[in-house]
Amino acid sequence: MKIVIAPDSFKDSVSAQGVADAIALGLTEVWPDAQLIKCPMADGGEGTVAAVLAACCGELHRAEVCGPLGKTINAAWGWLPDSHTAIIEMAEASGLQLVPVDRRDACISSTFGTGELIRAALDAGAQRVILAIGGSATNDGGAGAMQALGVKLLDAQDQELQPGGLALAQLARIELGDIDPRLAKVQFDIAADVDNPLCGPHGASAIFGPQKGATSRQVQQLDHALGHFAELCAQVLNKDVCNEPGSGAAGGLGFAAKAFLGAQFKAGVEVVAELVGLAEAVKNADLVITGEGRFDAQTLRGKTPFGVARIAHEHGVPVIVIAGTLGEGYQQLYAHGIDAAFALASGPMTLEQACADAPRLLQERATDIARVWRMAARTDSSARP
Questions:
Q1: How many angstroms separate the CA atoms of 383 and 354, rounded?
Q2: How far apart are the C-alpha atoms of 188 and 166, rounded to whole Å?
Q3: If DSSP codes are grouped into helix, strand and coil, which group holds residue 76?
């Protein structure tokens, strides 16, 4: 029996590695001799670095960088020395979780620290940089990150712009003379599950600005400022990526990465699957078990179970999901390679209880699944002539 265990983390509860470990323990109770292959996964949001390093035996590096509101913070990034690949989780430097709810301000938050992480990767000799850009606190079009890498953004008085997206409305000139020359020799990939354009009703400001503290009026101002930034970038760079899918990801960091760094947009789960070798692991497997905290119709937008199921389906391997909760529309995933889904809770309990008991509950659900699978196999065998 060969089983691949490829879950995402359960947010605010258990890491992807912890989820995989708990599921493996549960399966071992029924199948002590099974070949269990653990492939912790992520979809480009928080936990991407941890998942990749756990599966690839990479190195965790840290750097002192500028946080989203200017305070110096200690941020982690991943390093795969064999391939000279850096994995940068922008949420580590510019993430929403770094800002208390009452201080969230989409107008002034900056991606400068993410640019500093990129610079640290260049110093380490990176030949490829993977930008996992979920969970941002920013709406600056990636301007801060580019400033950290040497791009000068000047107002009409030739003064450097203040941090944040709103200041981009005052942008008069972009200078590229001091941009880090090492950037031209590096392959950049964006790992995300967001395909929004930079501006407009489906853009970064309109869709994600409110959760970062923007009022309805500020959303309009930010959208205008990002549009102005995009127009000047198109003039200087001789290309316009404003409306390309993913340019609105992470408050427009996707736009800057495409425009200035030539980054390629990829579904986050596909990038992680490539790094951890999921497709190779799934070959000749009998079963794949994946999972996430909330499994619902939004999973179709490229979250981990959806991506894992696509790979498993290509190899004809059944997929079972274990989730913290089963939300509205989860049944839609049955048409996309998911064969069954199970919620974690064994009875009435609070969210706090479920989070605290998640490792035990994961183990129990995995044992239950294994017992049902074994019973079905026995029934099938006895029914054969």
A1: 40
A2: 27
A3: strand
3-state secondary structure of 291: strand
Residue 358, CB-side half-sphere exposure with 13 Å CA sphere: 25
For 35-44, what is each residue's pLDDT tens digit? Answer: 999 999 988 8
Alpha helices (H) along the chain: 16-30, 48-56, 90-94, 112-123, 143-148, 204-208, 216-237, 253-261, 268-276, 278-282, 304-314, 351-356, 358-383
Distance in angstroms (rounded) separating the CA atoms of residues 213 and 136: 12
Quote the pTM value: 0.86
Query: CATH class for domain 2-39+277-383?
Result: alpha beta
Apex CA 216: angle with CA 215 and CA 222, to 5°? 80
CA distance 200 to 248: 10
Q: What are phi and psi of 294, to 5 degrees?
A: -130, 120
Crossing angle of helices 216-237/253-261, nearest 10°?
A: 0
pLDDT in tens, 186-198: 999 999 877 899 9
Q: Does the domain formed by 48-269 have CATH 3.90.1510.10?
A: yes
Tokens for 60, please give them: 């965790």
| Strand, helix or coil for residue 140 | coil
- 4 backbone φψ class: left, alpha, beta (φ>0; ψ -120 to 50): beta
Domains in the chain: boundaries? 2-39+277-383, 48-269
